[in-house]
Design a protein that fits this description.
182 residues, mainly beta, three-stranded antiparallel β-sheet, 13 strands, elongated
Length: 182
């Protein structure tokens, strides 16, 4: 959506603000919605970010040769988390993907709340694509290809659901095609 240009400190999103600032109060009607309001810009507001937290990629510049991006997930809360730059096709959130693809299966803790989960990049996938063996699925991704099942592969917190070959249903530890962990 094309929005009229605004002068700093006015903003439409965090991208219009300086590093360490966030855009507050912007109201923008989504492209596919019929809104009764006019788009109105917000204001860039500075805030002290906790170490490793971010609003945008620029907040992650650590003055080193290593490249970082600002990753957001459903657990992020108020801030994103500075994450290392990945290879093409991998992602921390859908902004790392191109060509209309979405990020499936990325897992990491919020920047200001360690949760014991190992950082795991996701995979950029067509939103309508069925997953192959090892692809994230279910609550962590999409559907699996025919003949595969969506299982929680390790039985401990921090794993993600992934597509796999079904186990033998006659085995006592197999339920719904997935191994059960005690």
């Amino acid at each position: 959506k094309c929005l009229k240009e605004v002068k700093y400190p006015s903003c439409w999103s965090h991208n219009n603000c300086q590093a360490g600032e966030q855009c507050q109060g912007a109201d923008v009607c989504p492209c596919d919605a019929d809104c009764d309001m006019e788009d109105s810009p917000g204001t860039c507001v500075g805030s002290e970010l906790p170490q490793g937290c971010c609003y945008q990629d620029e907040d992650c510049d650590q003055g080193t040769d290593a490249a970082y991006v600002c990753g957001w997930n459903e657990m992020s809360g108020e801030w994103g988390r500075c994450m290392w730059l990945l290879d093409p096709g991998q992602c921390w959130d859908s902004s790392d993907c191109t060509d209309g693809k979405v990020c499936n299966g990325a897992a990491y803790c919020p920047c200001d709340a360690p949760c014991g989960m190992a950082d795991m990049p996701g995979k950029c996938m067509d939103p309508n694509q069925a997953g192959d063996i090892g692809d994230p699925c279910g609550q962590d991704g999409g559907d699996c290809k025919q003949g595969l099942v969506c299982c929680y592969p390790c039985g401990i917190q921090g794993c993600i659901f992934e597509c796999s070959e079904p186990c033998d249903a006659s085995e006592p530890w197999c339920e719904g095609g997935c191994p059960m962990y005690a």
